TrEMBL record:
GO terms for molecular function: magnesium ion binding; phosphoacetylglucosamine mutase activity. Residues 60-100, 106-175 form the Alpha-D-phosphohexomutase alpha/beta/alpha domain. InterPro entries: A-D-PHexomutase_a/b/a-I, A-D-PHexomutase_a/b/a-I/II/III, A-D-PHexomutase_C, A-D-PHexomutase_C_sf, A-D-PHexomutase_CS, AMG1_II, AMG1_III, PAGM. The keyword Magnesium applies. It catalyses: N-acetyl-alpha-D-glucosamine 1-phosphate = N-acetyl-D-glucosamine 6-phosphate. It comes from the Eukaryota. This is Phosphoacetylglucosamine mutase. Pfam families: AMG1_II (PF21405), AMG1_III (PF21404), PGM_PMM_I (PF02878), PGM_PMM_IV (PF00408). One of its GO terms (biological process) is carbohydrate metabolic process. Pathway: Nucleotide-sugar biosynthesis; UDP-N-acetyl-alpha-D-glucosamine biosynthesis; N-acetyl-alpha-D-glucosamine 1-phosphate from alpha-D-glucosamine 6-phosphate (route I): step 2/2. Residues 185-290, 304-444 form the Phosphoacetylglucosamine mutase AMG1 domain.
Length: 548
């Protein structure tokens, strides 16, 4: 295809996926996300862009994932996966937005400009992997993505219903020649299961650890994936799987799943929790995980991403010390991290914490600055990344015949832990296996884990406004720079609460402004959240009922 050519046949294909309205859509926190019926042209164009990106990356595979993750079923979304399984390079997000917002008649010209600007060789082959969640609109949108890839003369490989992290892994494994394409699924599950089983065999301390877990699949693709993993785990982890209805559209993420459990601070519906038994909830595309349990007094306990981060970082830190390896370890959080978690991690565990804006792409990037970078958003999205230096030192040490036996054992375990982790992106299933490994190694029950530190009471709220983009933030989302005067008002409100902290930011995935508040008691945290939500409502053209 000549990038300058405008062709009638091509125009006819473009018009099969017409841009139905002129509302601007932006590549946000996790790609494009909105009502599914508004997305056909966006997904088609992202198929085109993925083929272009593949050419720009020497014909390596690029991923296109159709999902709206934690959002309600009528929504959908699309995000691109770069060659090493990472999120799309930030500079290309603007290109994606440009193509998505071009009118039908301008699209070919805009595409030609992008091809010239990025200097792609349009004669090179292009390969795009497509994956989708279980939403009723996802199959149709998947076809639109395939049509987009073909439009730009690329090869589309449809991987069907997969979790987001599975697609990230497939892209990485293909480009790294780790496994032949027909075995990608098998390789993903075998890698997780075999490393988890090896770790489980080695760890003998059991004490208060029990292998029985209730798994909440959010009625989404995570429920399908876990069914494939289960037979491979034998009796190392005894999961009872709930919320597996991937056929009835209205059930997805409805009163269950990681986002529901974290936001409502409540057990998922769909089954009766057994007292003190661990509940593992994943979200609609299984890239987030939240632990919880209900005690014998029917009191609910939440173990969110902050707790997972401290558990995992503490274990890794101990291994680094015991191994004698010179490796830097740090943790990355966002403004949503509970104040007490940050205090515990920095003051008690003595692990440095860095802050970034919301969005795993920001955290991932920051985590790469350490040899071992642990990052988790409070909502359960996160993983651990290892530098080349860390990987090399571990491999060298394993082959060092003079190494003391106890150190060798620690290093072997560290290597297996690296294997169980999906470092390309947050992966609920891999994260669960990691948490289970640490709990087993520590011999901990949920109560033991929870005893590490106590969360400050907090509350999350959503405020509906006319245009959420009037709110702009700085300082890793912790301060509001626009509209004028809003931050001053928030500071005034917060100053009258003991241990009060609050911030607001426009969501990148939903049409709302998010409000976070924490304070000394739950009553105060709730009150503070409502007060700040009203400040937002009044200063940023709130719509609908006044927050209460
Ligand atoms: C996505 C992002 C996360 C982010 C979440 C909420 O998650 O990948 O990093 O925390 O959206 O973002 P926002 O507050 O901007 O709406 P998911 O699981 O929905 O893809």
């Amino acid at each position: 295809i000549s990038p300058r050519a405008t062709d009638r046949k091509m125009q006819a294909t473009i018009e099969k996926y017409p841009r139905k309205n002129d509302v601007y859509i932006q590549y946000g926190t996790a790609g494009f996300r909105t009502k599914a019926e508004l997305l056909d042209h966006v997904v088609f164009r992202m198929g085109v862009l993925a083929a272009l990106r593949s050419r720009a990356k020497g014909s390596m595979a690029i991923g296109v994932m159709i999902t709206a993750s934690h959002n309600p079923e009528p929504d959908n979304g699309v995000k691109l996966v770069d060659p090493h399984g990472e999120m799309l390079e930030v500079a290309w997000e603007a290109i994606a937005s440009r193509l998505a917002n071009a009118s039908d008649s301008e699209f070919q010209e805009e595409l030609a400009k992008v091809a010239i600007q990025t200097g792609v060789d349009v004669n090179k082959p292009a390969l795009v992997f497509i994956g989708r969640d279980t939403r009723s609109s996802s199959e149709r949108l998947g076809e639109a993505a395939i049509a987009g890839v073909k439009f730009y003369q690329g090869t589309a490989v449809d991987h069907g219903q997969v979790t987001t992290p599975m697609l990230h892994y497939y892209v990485y494994a293909h480009n790294m020649n780790l496994t032949p394409d027909p075995q990608l699924e098998d390789s993903y599950f075998s890698k997780l299961a075999s490393s988890f089983i090896s770790l489980s065999k080695e760890i003998t301390t059991k004490k208060n650890y029990s292998p029985f877990v209730d798994f909440d699949g959010a009625n989404g693709v995570g429920a399908l994936a876990i069914e494939k993993l289960l037979p491979r785990l034998g009796n190392t982890l005894l999961l009872t799987v709930h919320n597996t209805d991937t056929v009835t559209p209205s059930t997805l993420n409805k009163e269950c799943g990681a986002d529901y459990v974290k936001t409502h601070v409540a057990a998922p519906k769909g089954f009766e929790p057994t007292p003190n038994k661990r509940i593992v909830s994943v979200d609609g595309d299984a890239d987030r995980v939240i632990y919880s349990y209900v005690d014998s007094q029917k009191q609910f306990h939440l173990m969110d991403g902050d707790h997972i981060a401290s558990l995992v970082a503490g274990y890794l830190m101990e291994m680094v010390k015991d191994s004698g390896l010179e490796l830097s370890l740090g943790l990355v959080q966002t403004a949503y991290a509970n104040g007490n978690s940050t205090k515990y991690i920095t003051e008690t565990m003595k692990i440095p914490v860095a802050f970034t804006s919301t969005g795993v792409k920001h955290l991932h990037h920051k985590a790469l600055e350490y040899d071992i970078g642990v990052y988790f958003e409070a909502n359960g999205h996160g993983t651990v990344v290892f530098s080349n230096n860390a990987r090399n030192l571990v491999l060298q040490a394993m082959n060092d015949e003079k190494l003391d036996e106890s150190k060798r054992r620690v290093i072997m375990r560290l290597k297996q832990v690296m294997e169980v982790i999906n470092s390309t992106v947050g992966d609920a299933i891999s994260d669960m296996l990691l948490v289970e490994t640490v709990l087993k190694a520590r011999g901990w029950s949920m109560e033991d884990w929870e005893a590490a530190y106590q969360d400050l009471p907090s509350r999350l709220m959503k405020v509906h406004v006319k245009d959420r983009n009037v709110i702009e933030t700085v300082d890793a989302d912790r301060k509001c720079s626009k509209p004028d005067g809003l931050q001053k008002e928030i500071d005034r409100v917060v100053s009258s609460y003991s241990f009060g902290r609050s911030f607001v930011r426009p969501s990148g995935t939903e049409d709302v402004v998010r409000v976070y508040a924490e304070a000394e008691t739950q009553v105060e945290a709730d009150k503070l959240a409502v007060e700040v939500a009203r400040v937002v409502y009044n200063n940023a053209d709130g719509v609908g009922p006044i927050p209460s």
